[in-house]
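Q: What would this chain look like folded?
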Amino acid sequence: MSTPNGPGRRSRVLLLGGTSEIGLAIVSALDLGPDTTVILAGRDRQRLEAAGKSLGRPVEVAVYDALATDSHQAFADQLSAGGVPDLVIAATGVLIGQDQAERDVRLAATMIETNFTGHVTALLAFGEAMRRRGSGTIVVLSSVAAVRPRKFNSVYGATKAALDSFARGYADSLHGTGVRVLLVRPGFVIGRMTEGMAPAPLATTPGAVGVAVAKALRGSKSVVWVPAPLVGLATVMKLIPRPVWRTMKS
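A: My prediction, written as structure tokens:
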């Protein structure tokens, strides 16, 4: 990790959604020195501490609630007072089934606020702090679900499409400021969130996403697909006529 504020400053990595399998896999795949401070942010301090032990390195934990959007500016200000993060990984997310969201619209609202609204408010706050400093990197976890909505995951797909759009626009806004946005588009990720679901074509794992993101951070890409062939599938998905698309089950 770089130290743009000069020699002697400890690099800082912040994982929003500090118990996320994918987020932790990204942190594990990074080549972090012993002088790097890793901060895991989430709602449950005990789970955060357990997640920290799984990394095999000292971590700090911070209480953060993606749904408490009115507290995100204060959270960013307080955390940045100890040093603006060099890397923010936005990994907070939930996957609620379409049938559940249709039966209880409050669950739909929770998914929208967690997967989209909370990311926007938190990343705007940290992005502005990075902009003022003149350096930093933001990693945003999108999904292949952002490419085209499906009838069986329209709410989840909408949250990812909105987040994907925000990340691309925000990256343009930050261009030339020294702040980089890396947009990550994984396919179906086999893990806790998708337990019990049949894997889709080109399924991947948290570890594979972590390795791909770490590699992309060493380069200059603005978007990374995991696995890489997924970009071809996504192109085909856009071209399928809608009457055919709505009949497809996977």
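Residues 1-7 have pLDDT under 50 and may be disordered.
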